[in-house]
Amino acid sequence: MATNLYSDGFFIEPSILMQEYGLLVGDRAHLPNHPALAGGYMGLGSESATVNKTLADIGSGVAGTIAENGAVTPDAFSAQIVSTTVVRKGKGRDRSDFLKTYDRTGMFLEQALAFDAAMIRGNTVVGMVAEAAATATADVTPGSGAALTWAKFQEAKQVLVQTGQAFAEGELLAVLHPVQWSNLEAEMITTGLGDAITHSPEAYNIQYARSIGYQGRYFGIDVFTSTRVPTANAGADSRGALVAPGGVVWAEGILENDPDGFMDVLDGGRLRIERDRDASRATKAYYYNFLIGVSLGEDARVVTITSDR
Q1: Is residue 107's pLDDT more than 80?
Q2: How distant, in Å, are the alpha carbons of 11, 190, 238 from that of 143?
Q3: What is the DSSP string of 4-16?
Q4: Of 179-183, 229-233, 265-269, minimum mean pLDDT range
Q5: Is residue 12 part of a domain?
Q6: For residue 286, which of 296, 272, 276, 297 has the smallest C-alpha distance?
Q7: CATH number at residue 214
Q8: In the prediction, which pLDDT does 239 show?
Q9: So what's the pLDDT on residue 29?
């Protein structure tokens, strides 16, 4: 949570709002900054534009021992061209004059707006990642209609290992349907696996900075839940996914400011908040707009997880 810089709680100060939002999205824990997503960032594009990028296996391999006067044979980079289309995403909020904050934590209006916008953007990214990752080729499943187990969850990670993917603690991201996650929780309770599951309590402490759907870190994997995880097998199952850096690619767009409008352009134009006053209802509507595109990147860096919905 960002620390409020200065506000009287009644009037929006653009400079404060900008700094509050900047503190949230600049945090290492903010979802788009997660290593699994940051590794697939493709830069900026305009609305409805397709952004292309060449992904090369930079940093892979090791140096060999060369004899005196020996020659080194260069290896070609393994490259893949990926693309995504930037689209507009929008969300509206209607605030009564009698509602001074969005919840009971005592946040001033700038804090509440910044927090609300950052969480909505993060949750939107989670859903888009789930939809993009679900198109990957490799899949792990306990069987259609069967509950997800920790053994299958760990098996998905092993699939990535066996394809030669290298990653560190906290670089993997899993997006599961809430039912898939509840099945994993139920297994911990009914089988007594709780103490045996490798879990990072420290990672869980930053869940609200990442996304409302953050469930914690297990086996070095940050787990998120989203109801936007696609269905499979005629709706009987959910197709979650495990994503390594480069498995999902994404791009953003920049929105310009309009001097005639009641708006604030934040994070260099990556988010625009516009306000619309309705005096007849004593309310003010807030509209969040941003441009973003998410697509499957390197297929070998994603494993889908299909189980009961």
Answers
A1: no
A2: 55, 20, 11
A3: P-S--SSS--HHH
A4: 265-269
A5: no
A6: 276
A7: 3.30.2320
A8: 97
A9: 65
Q: How many domains does the chain have?
A: 1
- Separation CA 303–CA 225 (nearest Å): 16
Using an 8 Å Cβ cutoff, are 29 and 1 in contact? no
Tokens of 298: 């390197």
Q: What is the structure's pLDDT at 58?
A: 66
Percent of the chain with pLDDT over 70: 79
The rounded percent of the chain whose pLDDT value lies above 90 is 33
Cα separation of 290 and 88, whole Å?
6
Q: Which tokens in the block code for residue 211?
A: 């996304």
Residue 255 forms part of a structural domain: no
Judge whether 92 and 290 are in contact, CB under 8 Å.
no
In a domain, 233, yes or no: yes
Q: Is 87 inside any structural domain?
A: no
Distance, CA of 139 to CA of 233 (rounded, Å): 13
Structure tokens belonging to residue 69: 């006067």
DSSP 81: E
Whether 163 has a pLDDT exceeding 50, the answer reads: yes
Provide the residue range defining the domain that includes 141: 132-248+297-308
Report the C-alpha gap between 124 and 304 in whole angstroms. Answer: 19
